[in-house]
């Protein structure tokens, strides 16, 4: 493909993004704050430049994959005038508010802005399972989607530049709580002589099967009627036995206490026979 592109930031992720573009045949200009990171990419055909300004001038499409929100401003604030009329795709992790702030900054500078949330680690870029969420400029997404698809599945989530980040962080919230749940289970069985590796082999197919319940829970949450028949009730979901067994094993009960509190608030409010999905009411109304 002959779409020219510049990549700012050659950390682990920026380098993986640039390598995938080179593999797809895009003329790629790369820049990194400290020297010495472009060697492999130059070997793959990249043009390495010494300043971010040269990189911005080299291509209409500019990809930023820096450390954080502050580093994006540090690099791009002095280049606002040079970015005018170009497309900036920011794949640096930021909060939704920071993404919106950058979108406003870009709008002031006459720059088409697209924010992205990378749902992959560097080794996954360009491989199956990699996906990137985008929001912001619809025009930019449509125009460059074939290029973005070189990194993984690309999806567009609306003109509010903060949404890609919001969805990214929501998915990570689910991931971290699941990981904590897995580690808690491993700690429960450890005193009984099971290794974490043995527990992982049991837990992975179990938790994979349980993701089938997401849609059932979602149907109840979206419908807003927690009395729908066929659900597991809050009373049945009580984690008392799990908390007690964790305590008996001499480990912290924090992970399971958190879920138990969400359940208990609804039972205490008189909703014990409603379905488990009702814990969303505890989450929506902080206790
Ligand atoms: P690295 O730590 O490997 O690289 C950070 C990059 O940012 C380096 O190129 C560094 O330059 C540059 N940088 C930091 N501060 C500044 C600054 N003030 N001015 C200019 N450049 C700066 O991080 P990653 O490549 O892993 O991550 C990059 C972004 O991608 C992050 O926002 C991260 O959250 C996101 N991301 C990463 C994932 C991962 O698994 N790695 C997954 C999803 C998103 P220098 O070499 O000069 O220090």
What can you see in these coordinates?
This protein has 287 residues and is of the alpha/beta class. The chain has two domains: 5-159, 3-Layer(aba) Sandwich (Rossmann fold), CATH 3.40.50.720; 166-284, N-(1-d-carboxylethyl)-l-norvaline Dehydrogenase, domain 2 (Orthogonal Bundle). It contains 13 helices and eight strands. An eight-stranded mixed β-sheet has the order 3-2-1-4-5-6-7-8, sandwiched between helices. The longest helix has 28 residues, at 162-189. It is elongated. The model has no long low-confidence stretch (mean pLDDT 97). Bound molecules: NADPH dihydro-nicotinamide-adenine-dinucleotide phosphate.
List the main descriptive attributes of the protein structure presented here.
13 helices; 8-stranded mixed β-sheet; binds NADPH dihydro-nicotinamide-adenine-dinucleotide phosphate; 52% helix; 287 residues; Rossmann fold; N-(1-d-carboxylethyl)-l-norvaline Dehydrogenase, domain 2; alpha/beta
Order of helices and strands: EHEHEHEHHEHEEHEHHHHHH
The CATH topology assignment of the largest domain is Rossmann fold
CATH level 1 class label of the largest domain = Alpha Beta
Strand order of the largest sheet: 3-2-1-4-5-6-7-8
What's the Cα radius of gyration?
Answer: 23 Å
Strand fraction equals: 5-15%
The protein's oligomeric status is: single chain
Largest beta sheet, briefly? 8 strands, mixed
List low-pLDDT spans.
none
Shape: elongated
> What is the share of helical residues?
40-55%
How many individual helices?
13
CATH superfamily of the largest domain: NAD(P)-binding Rossmann-like Domain
Distinct small-molecule ligands in the complex: NADPH dihydro-nicotinamide-adenine-dinucleotide phosphate
- Count of beta strands: 8
Average predicted confidence as pLDDT: 97
